Q: What sequence folds into this?
């Protein structure tokens, strides 16, 4: 199998199961035109996040890592009318693009974008007692995965679903002798989930338009 085949299958999934979505197409174009890195989740992955929000019955969602807001919009679409999503972004330019995208998608009233280092923002949310969150999606700087997970637990309750993106890293996660900080961050996510007895988790390998990677998914007991 090749990345060309994986991308073609992703395209088939979208064409078979999704309605045409010019808004999300415009979001991706805006991100590209504004020079944001093309590291958004794929459309199929975004729909999965939206479905997980709905399956969980989530009303209060937290996202660590906004970028241009593509995944934020997918999750916001899964929320009920009274739901909200808090999303954390470090880069002011990314945040500006994301806010414009939220307006374009008609979800700005559901989104609370916090600008600044995510660890500080998570600490502030804890101090504000903004949780518990029903679902938490972690997709930021990978070396801080364990720190994000630790703070996420402080903002969780029984039943909270925690999703950590990019934990397979082209299969490099199995290399114990690696020194890539992103791979080490992926391994740290696995170590955290396995060592915290409050968490029951698994991971799913994914292939598609975004290459070979995967999600770790856990639920707080």
A:
């Amino acid at each position: 199998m090749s990345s060309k085949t994986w991308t073609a299958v992703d395209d088939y999934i979208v064409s078979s199961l999704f309605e045409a979505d010019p808004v999300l197409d415009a979001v991706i174009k805006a991100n590209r035109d504004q020079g944001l890195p093309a590291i958004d989740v794929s459309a199929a992955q975004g729909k999965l996040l939206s479905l997980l929000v709905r399956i969980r019955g989530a009303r209060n969602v937290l996202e660590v890592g906004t970028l241009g807001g593509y995944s934020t919009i997918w999750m916001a679409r899964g929320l009920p009318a009274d739901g909200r999503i808090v999303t954390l972004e470090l880069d002011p330019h990314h945040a500006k693009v994301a806010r414009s995208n939220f307006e374009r998608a008609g979800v700005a009233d559901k989104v609370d974008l916090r600008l600044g280092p995510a660890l500080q923002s998570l600490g502030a949310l804890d101090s504000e007692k903004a949780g518990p969150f029903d679902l938490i999606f972690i997709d930021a700087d990978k070396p801080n995965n364990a720190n994000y997970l630790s703070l996420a637990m402080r903002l969780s309750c029984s039943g909270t679903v925690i999703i950590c993106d990019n934990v397979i890293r082209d299969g490099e996660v199995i290399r114990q002798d690696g020194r890539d900080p992103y791979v080490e961050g992926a391994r740290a996510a696995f170590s955290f989930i396995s060592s915290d007895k409050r968490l029951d988790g698994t991971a799913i390998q994914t292939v598609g338009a975004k290459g070979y990677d995967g999600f770790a998914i856990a639920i707080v007991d």
In short: The chain has one domain: 3-220.
